[in-house]
Write a structure and sequence with these properties.
about 270 residues; alpha+beta; Jelly Rolls; Arc Repressor Mutant, subunit A; 3 domains; four-stranded antiparallel beta sheet
């Protein structure tokens, strides 16, 4: 029996001003669900541009490079999530495109999208069940559209799963490259090449993404001081943590904690 699950890492309702959200060739590691409410947004993956229109629900896969922009004000209910097992999360990444759901599916789940902001701030158990049910159904619809995986791709992905598990469990105290490579019985150099070819990022950048996602979740709740958030995410120096966070998200931890800046739906 498969042990399947979803972890919601961030979400809410965003009012993105024209030109406020713009990035070129950004590597993302978390899947995203957007319910576009108004305005315009475009996302480009693998040279194809997708325009997100009001009244539709969209899924953006993880582990892809995207460019995006908001030529006009864009209003959206959004959430970021990860799947486990990690092999399923990576499999969803092979979708490689923005998936737009039809109006019937959008109408079914739009009320649940409106619950995300309340849930992120500490919503009820019933909110959590509804949001997870929506996410799992949309993921199932996306997986139905995936091409069959080649035997070689499956072997390479499975070989790296112990390394991913180690990176996930040790995100706040990252292991050395040699220690990670040992989980796949590879030399550090061979492991680094295979990891980059499979996940389109380095082990260091992968761990950084996990730590920053954890920090954003803690800061968005507004309950812990920045210094404690830094310590929980594995940073002994809160000033260094603040610099890394600002470089990663374009906003300071203090502003996110106060609610005067939000990471928003992108990246």
């Amino acid at each position: 029996m498969l042990d399947l699950g979803v972890v919601i890492t961030a979400g809410g309702r965003a009012h993105c001003q024209a030109g406020a959200w713009s990035r070129e060739d950004e590597l993302i590691h978390e899947a995203k669900i957007y319910h576009a409410l108004g305005g315009r947004c475009w996302i480009r993956i693998a040279g194809i541009t997708y325009r997100l229109n009001a009244g539709h629900l969209y899924l953006i896969p993880p582990h892809v490079r995207i460019s995006f922009g908001t030529p006009s004000e864009f209003i959206v209910d959004w959430l970021h999530f990860r799947l486990h097992p990690l092999s399923l999360d990576r499999r969803l990444g092979s979708l490689g495109r923005v998936l737009r759901f039809d109006r019937a599916i959008t109408a079914r789940w739009a009320p649940v999208c409106r619950l995300v902001e309340r849930f992120i701030k500490g919503g009820s158990t019933s909110d959590a069940f509804r949001i997870h049910a929506m996410t799992m159904e949309l993921v199932a619809l996306a997986i139905d559209r995936l091409p069959a995986e080649s035997p070689q791709q499956a072997r390479e992905r499975e070989r790296l799963l112990p390394a991913l598990r180690l990176l996930e469990t040790r995100a706040t105290n990252p292991p050395s490259l040699r220690e990670i490579a040992r989980t796949a019985s590879l030399s550090p150099e061979h492991f680094h090449r295979l990891f980059h070819a499979t996940f389109h990022t380095t082990p260091h950048r992968y761990v950084l993404g996990r730590r920053m996602a954890m920090a954003n979740t803690l800061l968005s709740k507004g309950r812990l001081p920045v210094k404690e958030v830094a310590e929980r995410c594995g940073y002994s120096d809160s000033f260094y943590f603040s610099r890394v966070f600002r470089q990663f998200f374009g906003a300071s931890p203090a502003r996110v904690r106060r609610g005067t800046a939000a990471i928003g739906p992108l990246p």
